[in-house]
Design goal:
Elements (H helix, E strand, L loop, with lengths): L19 H22 L4 H4 L3 H7 L5 H22 L11 H11 L2 H14 L4 E5 L5 E5 L14 E4 L6 H4 L3 H8 L5 H12 L3
Antiparallel strand pairs: 1-2, 1-3
Amino acid sequence: MFVLPTLNYQLDDFKMAISPEMMSLHYEKHHQAYVDKLNATLKDFPDLLEKPVEFLVANYRHLSENIQTPVRNFAGGHYNHSLFWGYLSPVSSDAPSGLLLDKIVEKFGSFEKFKEEFSAKALGLFGSGWTWLLDDMSIVNTANQDNPITDGNRKPVLCIDVWEHAYYFDYTYRRADFIANFWKIVDWDKISQDYLSNFGKI
């Protein structure tokens, strides 16, 4: 059975960017709904309930045809949100460091230029979806609850949820303000360490 990930912070730790009420709705309601619906979808497939959610997201096209779409949606929702929560921290540095910073500067010219391009990509996504930074420093959008690993990419480096349910309670239609404040709560220390561990020898 799948469960919500344990957070390393409290729901009221991000008041500079996300209200406790928005965090509660997003984590305890929306994310929980994906988990519940994924478990319900797989109730007759106990072997799949034992698989990592990442496996389901990457391989849903190879599952029984009648569960491909719900697994795509619900496993994707669970996995994407779990990644998103893991990229956040109420206390972190203002920028990446080490190898990740080197790669960002090499690709974009500066960290500020990267933030501008990432923000523009997220702002320009039509409808619901996610914006991702991949290990090769490309920035891509996916619709709904799709994830880059489904298309053969490695685990993303960073993402932002730009579904309206991620920000509408606090920002109404002002997605740009949500994106601007998102940068205040990105856990660059952890992300930089993870990048070095996952991609430093590739």
